[in-house]
Amino acid sequence: MTIQVVILAAGMGSRLGRELPKPLTELGDGRTIMQQQHDNIAAAFGTDVTITTVVGYKLEHIIDAFPDVDYVYNEQYDQTNTSKSLLRAMKATGKSGVLWMNGDVVFDPQVLVRVAGRVHADQSFVSVNTSAVSDEEVKYTVDADGFVRELSKQVSNGLGEAVGINFISSADKAAFTRQLQRCGDQDYFERGLELAIEHDALKLEPVDISDLYAVEIDFAEDLERANRHV
């Protein structure tokens, strides 16, 4: 089975203050953020993978750096958020399940190794870190059966943070895509998951990766923290 992977890399990443798109930021080991993502994908799934990257801001730099993957263009990259970038990718990847990640996440290769069984079994999940709960991050709660109930930055008393590496199964994909269409332009893709939980009874498992590193790069201090791991 070919694994479908989507990398969301359309944004401007203005908070980091770099000239190139944020996924092309160089890490301490000489790789870019996106190159370490490609390496981690290959380590977990081998070569039987199709990567679709959603691009927008200065897209030619990303395409030049990674010419052998599929691309989807979000022409409204400066007016929309990740819900609309992911919507374009969902429409472009057929009916199969999709593993997706934000293009600015530096993470332990073992993260994808840990979730590979669920990907192969076609089970929807969201990767979470239960060791930190920051007000600025996407947080979650669970229902009585242990599945995600709430997933947003506005969650109160969150059990942990979503790290930006998730999977939607082939069975759940149509409902999730429909809910992404309902999202506002400035919504994060997590809003689409919340709507699918509410309206389509989506069962989304939180997978704890707290013992592994996963750093979303927004600011220079995030980059410094990631470089202590790579």
Note down, in words, how this protein is organized.
It is a single chain. With 230 residues, this protein is of the alpha/beta class. The protein is built from 7 helices and 11 strands. Strands 1, 2, 3, 4, 6, 7, 8, 9 and 10 form a 9-stranded mixed sheet that branches. Strands 5-11 form a two-stranded antiparallel ribbon. Strand 2 (49-55), helix 2 and strand 3 form a beta-alpha-beta unit. Helix 1 crosses helix 4 (110-120) and helix 5 crosses helix 6 (189-200). It starts with a strand and ends with a helix. The mean pLDDT is 95.
Brief summary of the model shown:
With 230 residues, the chain is an alpha/beta fold.
Produce the secondary structure layout.
Blueprint: E1 3-9, H1 33-45, E2 49-55, H2 59-65, E3 70-73, H3 82-92, E4 98-102, E5 105-107, H4 110-120, E6 125-129, E7 139-142, E8 148-152, E9 160-168, H5 170-182, H6 189-200, E10 205-208, E11 214-216, H7 220-227
Parallel strand pairs: 1-2, 1-4, 2-3, 6-10
Antiparallel strand pairs: 4-9, 5-11, 6-9, 7-8, 7-9
Helix pairs in contact: 1-4, 3-5, 3-6, 5-6
Largest sheet: 9 strands, mixed
Q: How far is it from the N-terminal to the C-terminal residue, by CA?
A: 30 Å
Could you give the count of β-strands? 11
Mean pLDDT: 95
Order of helices and strands: EHEHEHEEHEEEEHHEEH
Helical proportion, percent range = 25-40%
Tally of alpha and pi helices: 7
Strand content: 15-25%
Shape from CA axes?
A: globular
Structure keywords:
single chain; 230 residues; alpha/beta; nine-stranded mixed beta sheet; two-stranded antiparallel sheet
